[in-house]
Design goal:
2 domains; Rossmann fold; DNA polymerase, domain 1; six-stranded parallel beta sheet; hydrolase activity, acting on acid halide bonds, in C-halide compounds (chains A, B); 221 residues; HAD_sf (chains A, B); Haloacid dehalogenase type II (chains A, B); 2-HAD (chains A, B); homodimer; alpha/beta; 14% strand
């Protein structure tokens, strides 16, 4: 990491919290289907957020996430209904924090720390507050305020405006390849937290740094 | 179908041609991996087109398709390289036409018939011409001319402008749920060709008609 960095902006879903920790809640309702539901649900959630951004039909991420769940249950021919939806949507508000997150954030107190999430406040705030993560950040930014989804340039611009810094003073961290591409395309410095040990996306927008998890941030200081 | 329809606009990939007929070409190069490559390749191709639309980083669909192939081969830890890429990209120019397409199009000669595809001309025209499908259509429209990807409203607006008709005089047909959502959101009449027997997308943009394949168009006349 370069010394010019004045703020670090973290994505939330997949980067700080494990979206696939939802699997056990899914498994409880649908035995032996937890893994498949969790995987398909995440893919559909992302697809719907991308499509809504392209069509100009914004809906809060909580609505998008519920729609995605409803689709996936129908696709897998599983019985849904309001009660199951509520249970699984609630589980999305208590995803597991990755184990190293707090210890790393504690060591980064010389920087401004922020989050920038596609999550709407009704999902994002309970998630952050339940595990006491909210206190680490000066800015908890939801794209809900601009009614756009990442990787739209407007979301990164909104984040920059909130921080009042130059693009090159902001290090944007995400484990989502599409989010890194969007942040890089906008002009931020980027660190891809490659938790899944995946190949880089073929979008000609390579991350400036690639880390296995957040611990590497401490080695780089 | 209502009698007010003056033009029928068909999507190409998945609607007229079976994108998964690529499987046998993949299988030839990578035995026992054909199905997985074909499925992942299509998903990544769509994801990259959506992301490029959102980020405002248009590249022709042929480049997007090649990038997607390159990613998938790396993800599946398969050896790629220029020669394999050329072979599989060429196979994408000779996808199988669905069996009923020509017989149905012949019967629809009282309407203006058009195609509107995310495909760039270097992919789309060889595909249409090789099987003699181009002669059925008055307009073969590639989004390349507006440098946007469906389901962006700009692509459907471009199609409408080419036809010179009112929105409600245009029936848009696609087997891709996201394409139907985009066309419906723009204001076209829509027919979802539900070849995969899938549940409708949960995007609150339901198709006006749902058909199992194109034959149903003749029953409805």
């Amino acid at each position: 990491m370069t010394s010019s960095v004045k703020a670090m902006v973290f994505d939330v879903y997949g980067t700080l919290f494990d979206v696939h920790s939802i699997q056990s809640a899914c498994e409880k309702v649908y035995p032996e289907k937890g893994l498949e539901i969790s995987r398909e649900w995440r893919l559909k959630q992302l697809e719907y957020s991308f499509l809504r951004q392209i069509m100009g039909c914004y809906q809060p991420f909580s609505a998008v996430t519920r729609d995605a769940l409803r689709y996936v249950l129908k696709e897998l021919q599983l019985e849904g209904g309001r009660e199951v939806e509520e249970e699984l949507m609630n589980a999305y508000r208590s995803l597991h924090l990755y184990p190293e997150v707090k210890e790393v954030l504690k060591e980064l107190s010389d920087k401004k720390l922020a989050v920038c999430s596609n999550g709407s406040r009704d999902m994002l705030l309970p998630l952050m507050q339940t595990c006491g993560l909210d206190s680490f950040f000066t800015h908890i930014v939801s794209v809900e305020d601009v009614e756009q989804f990442k990787p739209s340039p407007g979301t990164y611009a909104f984040m920059q405006e909130k921080l009042g810094l130059k693009k090159e003073e902001i290090l944007f961290l995400s484990s989502n390849g599409w989010d890194i591409a969007g942040a890089k395309s906008y002009g931020f410095l980027t660190a891809w937290i490659n938790r899944g040990n995946l190949p880089p996306e073929e979008l000609q927008l390579a991350a400036d740094f690639i880390y296995r998890d957040l611990r590497s941030l401490l080695d780089q200081q």
